[in-house]
Amino acid sequence: MQCYVCNSENAPEAIYCNHCGERLQTEQERLEEIEKQQAEEVKHKVQEIIAAQSPSFFMILLSPKGRVGRLAYWSAGVILSVTQAIGITLLESADVLLGVLGGVFMIASIWSAFVVTAKRWHDLDKSAWWSLTFLVPIWNFISGLELLFGSGKSEENIYGHPPVSNRAFEITGVIVFILSIAVVAYILFGDTYSSQLQPASSQFTSATPRPAASPTAKPRPTNTKESCTHWSKVTSSMEGRTMCVYGTVSRIYENNGAQQSYIYFGDVDEFFFLNSYTWSDIVGKCVSHTGTIKLNSVHIPYLMTGDQLAPCP
Structural domains in the chain? Predict the structure, then answer.
């Protein structure tokens, strides 16, 4: 039996080579080992080719050649939607440079949308001209479902090899989607606290700078406790009544956007004073005011005051 390491001849029944000590192999075993090595080499080369063919972000979004699968199409849709939203926001800016940048965003996103849609049709073994079906009612709905959920061809077609997924691109799409949902949720529900403070009418909004106010800048008639109602006793059923209300200030909320101040005596869902002035040094002090009880958009009673607040009777 020949040793494939040192090429020396050994007895047919020998297990190890008498010259180099290597374990002897039959011809069949040798062939199987060679085939196994070749298969490993081929596998390694295929993996290198696939890695080289994995499209980059810019190839997916800007190059019309090739094919894209469902995950890449979904990710591109999310990314391009956010890009267009940014572009629209920049276009509405009064700054010329930001407006130009917004235009660039919009042009790039429109081109990318066409490119990605065309390559998705290619993956379905159809021409990009199928995009024209979006102009036909009902058919456009069917085409949209096909692009979103249709299974691409697993074999090579006239548009190229089956698409190679770019995991980084797909993960980016997922992250952008989650962040978009979070932003939308914040816009819809994140300002609930301040929305409860807004009055039902915008007649109190002032576009002028907010001057500072003083609780005792001018002499005012002194009310007696018998004629003044504690803030905790004011309810929504008192809407329209003109009355004196007093209480100890617990907090002040400054809404600079609407140029309004909210003076609270308890929780935010209880009676408050509303005016268009800034206040200081009144938290913890007892103040009073006479006016007409109003209700805000969530039926919380309040009094509209001016730049003067009287001390408690």
Answer: 1-53 (no CATH), 57-189 (no CATH), 228-311 (2.40.50.140)
